[in-house]
Amino acid sequence: MSQKIIIAIDGYSSCGKSTLARQLAKELNYIYIDSGAMYRAITLYFLRNHIDWTDEAQVQEALQQIVLEFHPNSNTGQSEMYLNGENVEYVIRDLVIAEKVSEVAAIKEVREFAVHQQQLMGVKKGIVMDGRDIGTTVFPQAELKIFMTADNAIRVERRFKELYAKNPNITIEEVKNNLELRDYIDSHRDVSPLRKADDAVVIDNSDLTPEEQLRLAKELAMKQAIQSY
Ligand code: CDP
Fold first, then answer.
1. Closest residue CA from atom 1 of ligand 1
2. Which positions ≥6 away from 110 have C-beta within 8 Å?
3. What average pLDDT does this structure show over 1-12?
4. I need a labelling partner for 10 at 20 to 30 A (CA). Which of 171, 204, 213, 217 fits?
5. Is the CB of 89 under 6 A from ligand 1?
6. 113 Cα–ligand 1 center, Å
7. In the chain, what are the domains?
8. What ligand 1 atom has the least distance to the C-alpha of 92?
9. What is the dihedral of CA 163, 168, 82, 187, to 10 degrees?
10. In testing the pocket of ligand 1, which one of 43, 45, 94, 102 has its CB within 8 Å of the most ligand atoms?
11. 77 has pLDDT over 90
12. Alpha-carbon span 108 to 114, nearest angstrom
């Protein structure tokens, strides 16, 4: 016998967290939440509306205008990010957003806004959430915490391929610089910086296929689900 648990997957930029989280949720019939998409959507709103995010009052006012929702795509079944009713799943993956998202995600008010919503999504458990602070701040009580890592060059190559498919003008240097910058800001910010939770299991997927990493994570999840029954 087993019961539904919370699975937190954290790690550096582009190390395959969302691929694993999405597959794991599907296998277990859990909800998948991409917490990074929420920070990306907030950044999109700030950029579009020329919000000066160094000004606390402007940030607070802007956050009151933002409604974030996840809805499944009717063709793929995959959950997609909606900002004030608009599907922004595609546009938030752009490098323009990636270049600013870590600055925005370091703001205390932004994090409180997002974390509160993320915690509500986990009330009934049966959720896999990936991000930077899921095991440390959003769900410190999560039954399973995974911290993913991968070789830097492999991460850059994977993200370059994804972005190049959408925009052939992109260079590998731009992608490399962006990942390095985000990793630095994410792990050095004052509010819930990226770090491995003490009780997280580390998975280095540099040499693992998606199938292998899924098998590994599924075994861990089944073990935890049985233990928490
Ligand atoms: O997909 P990738 O690993 O490149 O990033 P993401 O998960 O889409 O997250 C984008 C950015 O949002 C990160 O670089 C962080 O600055 C921020 N983020 C965060 O601060 N906390 C989270 N729980 C998730 C993302």
1. 14
2. 39, 42, 53, 59, 63, 104
3. 90
4. 171
5. no
6. 15
7. 6-215 (3.40.50.300)
8. 8
9. 30
10. 102
11. no
12. 10
